[in-house]
Amino acid sequence: MRRDDIAKVLLKNSEGKYLILRGSVWPERPDRSQKPDVPGGMVDPGETHVDGAVREMKEEAGITINPSDLRLAFAESFVFSDKAVNRLLYRIDVENVPEVTISWEHEGYWWKSADEVLALDIRDPYPAMFAHLKQIGELE
Question: 40 and 95 in contact (C-beta within 8 Å)?
């Protein structure tokens, strides 16, 4: 059975705002095309979830983060007929407002408050993840 591990990062800056990326045009994936997203993606073979999250943050937003500053905020696993999926969302607070340099995968970004993050028209599973994070005090 194939396994897909996905590691994403919800980054909060010193002004209390969260980094949200806007996806580029993806004709083959209209569900993701020009939609809000958070940095992250597929964990490479042989890579830990944390290392994948750190790499993806650098690739997609140009931001270097310290792996030891990441904390796991949400995790879920499920199985399809041909693959198992592990989806992890890490949280990190940074002491500044980092400069963002987006990759070809994205066409823009925003810094959003917690309420704005909760109100995003964003694809599943993020609405449920963000609501859970709000409930447990990780999205404030």
Answer: no
